[in-house]
Amino acid sequence: MRVGHFSVKLALLATLAGGMPASARAPQEEQDPPPTREELAVLAENAALFQSHEPLVVTLEADIADLKRNREEENEREGSLTFPGPDGEPMTVSIKLTTRGIYRLEKSHCNFPPLRIDLPRGAVRGTVFDGQNRIKLVSPCRDDRDDYQNYVLLEYLVYRTFNELTPVSYRVRLLEMTIRDTSGDNEDRTKYAFLIEDVDRLAERHLAVESEWPQFHPYNMEDRQAFLLALFEYMVGNADFSPVYFHNVKMIAQEGPNYLVVPYDFDFSGAVDAGYARPPEELPIRRVRDRYYRGFCRDEFDGAPIFALFNERREAIYAMVRGVVQLEEDERDRLLEYYDEFYEIINDEGDTRREIYRRCRRPGGG
Question: How many whole angstroms separate alpha carbon 330 and alpha carbon 336?
Fold first, then answer.
């Protein structure tokens, strides 16, 4: 829905939160009023799933053999998810699973497709999944190789890095996930995976709604967030995004309207450095580890406070990376060395001018 329908969509969200309109319900006890936008923001901000960074131990059961063979996104599969209940004891709920993605959905690239989990709202109230409904799962797309496990943990760290820079970012939760195939064709496997906050919950936290367009002029986006996103993508070496055509980027709109862009999907970044990743063919770089700034020029915007923000958050980012001990130490060190190179560039006036300001794009240009 276009952001021009902002008030209509907010009304719809409130209606969905409260159930069917009163006129469509059978006579019954008086219903509580639907939550306000501010109340929805508080609920989304305080969602139990994202109040901890400790790995959540879960078991996913489904016909994994069928998921691996038949990857059509429109097919909804039955499954179950087991996780700690309110009393700490394991509880199991029925879920629905759909495949998603582009590159990782292809059998030739991955033997395990990326999934979206549909949780039953009523069954998860009072649990760590309270308030969650449809949520993306990122797991090793080849469950038989250790390097693909590293890719997942590195991508998780990239999301966490952006969290350290701005709350207008997708929150994530690490999982220690056992995958159990109900068909019996595959042995149980326990892997680290992570869940990504739903875009509607992200928008609710910021009193906004998702804004969908076929394309969007970059100068209509809020300057600070747009520059922050571009500099962050440069930091992690990700050229696989477009804020104009919404490739690996979502946009949310606050009243005003105020358009905020939010990145996702970083497996083609230099920070992850997946063996299968290649930079876009149109760019003059050969490896994803080679940074290339893809932000748009913003001549009237002072970027100095954004550079200062990256420097202010450097120690917190590095401490966060070191704290994810599920990733091998040498991989954490490699990531931090890659970040070191970024900080050397933004703290050298000549490098900043050459690598960032002179490479910025103008609409209609390269």
Answer: 10
